[in-house]
Amino acid sequence: MDLWVEFKDDLYRKKATVASPHDLQSLKLFAEFIGESTPGVLDPSGKPTVQTVRNHFRRFVSGWSQKNPDAIISRDHTDPVTNDLKTRIRIKLGLSSMTRTRTYITLENYMYLERQLWENDPHDYVHEAYRVFISAKLKDHLYTPARLGE
């Protein structure tokens, strides 16, 4: 949300207009602003990835919706911005398309998760069956066909 305030001030200084999150053009300019002000980690030249900028934009939209429940930003505005990020903004700013290498859960990590759930979890569950359900979800996710190939 702080980035939005900085963007509004910057846009007002440049064009003497007021930015609104309900204006599609303002949101596209804001997505560009995010891309320009976010440092990259994966790319050697320091450019952020498209996914990083998309995540920052989604976090802004979620934060705006939480702080302003009566003025939620509609999907009619967020979807075009997301598509614009993948095409025009990516080319204009030279955003990286690199991705991190996938890491998978190991038996050691899984055992840690189960131990945390059954031995060290300070949460007071209304019913102890919830712990069983959470454990079952962990096992279900771990043994899906996609995971078995790993």
TrEMBL record:
PANTHER family (UniProt xref): FLUG DOMAIN PROTEIN (PTHR37535), FLUG DOMAIN-CONTAINING PROTEIN (PTHR37535:SF3)
Protein name, per record: Uncharacterized protein
Organism from which the protein derives: Rhypophila decipiens
Phylogenetic placement of the source organism: Eukaryota, Fungi, Dikarya, Ascomycota, Pezizomycotina
